[in-house]
Amino acid sequence: MLKNLKSLFIVEEDQEETKKPTTPKDKEGNEASTPNVSEPAPPTRTSAASTTGIVDPKIVEKLLGAIEKNNLEGFDYLEYKKALKALEKMPMDESTKYRSAFATASTMGVTLDKLLETTKFYIGVLDKESEQFTNAFKNQFDDKVSGREREIAQFESIIKEKSAQIKALTEEIAKHQTQIEGLKAKVQESNAKINKTQNDFKQSYDLLKSQFEEDMLKMQKYLK
User: Fold this and answer.
1) pTM over 0.85
2) With pLDDT > 70 as the criterion, what percentage of the chain qualifies?
3) Residue 106's CB: how many other CB atoms inside 10 A?
4) Which of 9, 81, 161, 201 is deepest in the core (most CB within 10 A)?
5) Confidence of residue 12 (pLDDT cuts 50, 70, 90)
């Protein structure tokens, strides 16, 4: 039933092939030459397609499935659509096809008001499916988009906070390095002073000691 319903609204590829115009022929029955015009490349899905959207066969089948489940009894819009489909290949203009299908429906007591009423009913079925899809979409959006955007914002905040900490630590490290250099200079200065004082002490000590020792020798020599 779903396949038959789908055929009422979706043009299959093989049906499109039958609608292609035949190659024109000349007076002798040979195929007439046609201008050498390159065929346009088949459309490809680009980033724009993801924005504007495409007709998805799975979504179409789901929507038609909802129509099938809510199919009204008796001759209504769907049956009228089938009657129109049956006249598809007939050599009639669109207006004649619609009137011919309605003539058949009229024999079953169907009125224009009933056709319009049942058409609106099926539109309502589609609208209900659209509402359910919108709700499901919102949930998925909150889960997979908004939720992740919140995570991104949290991580960005953490990165900003830690970047500030890194900057502060870097400044502290630079300050400590300057302090180290200053302390190293003071260490060298203090070490030089201490070494000088030590050397001065040794020289002074040696000078005095040598004099004491020299006097001891002289006293021993002269005072015996």
Assistant:
1) no
2) 80
3) 12
4) 81
5) low
